[in-house]
Amino acid sequence: xxxxxxxxxxxxxxxxxxxxxxxxxxxxxxxxxxxxxxxxxxxxxxxxxxxxxxxxxxxxxxxxxxxxxxxxxxxxxxxxxxxxxxxxxxxxxxxxxxxxxxxxxxxxxxxxxxxxxxxxxxxxxxxxxxxxxxxxxxxxxxxxxxxxxxxxxxxxxxxxxxxxxxxxxxxxxxxxxxxxxxxxxxxxxxxxxxxxxxxxxxxxxxxxxxxxxxxxxxxxxxxxxxxxxxxxx
Length: 233
Hints:
By secondary structure, the protein is mainly alpha-helical. The protein has one domain (13-229). The chain is built from 7 helices and no strands. 27% of the residues are buried.
């Protein structure tokens, strides 16, 4: 179930994008509007950080460097040097998902990740990348990843592996969507019925959930791509 906000700061987009109602829900239109907002925020932050780079970094530059180096370390710890080409993709997903999660904590803002369309799109990108990389690295022998270690079980293992791989984007998308949608629903209930109860505990919980869900998505994406790089056994 998608959460529909009674009021949003970008609510006028519901009228501008009303032709899209044939293809998506009202919350889907909200997700599109706030996805563009998230992209604009990330572009502006990247521009400001690049323009303000210093040899002796300030607090914000320190935070950004720590965040980026943590992502790089996660990738190299799981994939080694082979993972470096995938840093831009995984870092982009991490920044996008985290920013999308965090803006939902601001009253009147809608987190795009609370809509299934957004999370499915991110999961499909990871799914396609995984198998394109697998075929590019291993060629036709990539099919061995789906046949299992014992030749006489290959027909059975093929269907099992296919189901397992198809479940990955479902798991990625529904896990992120379910957590963010559920948290958004709780926030709306509190803000509607008892706004004075929301402040610190709910905000701290929301920040924790935002970082945790971003980390889980990034970690699983790294593991899936790393698996396609390995030789089949």
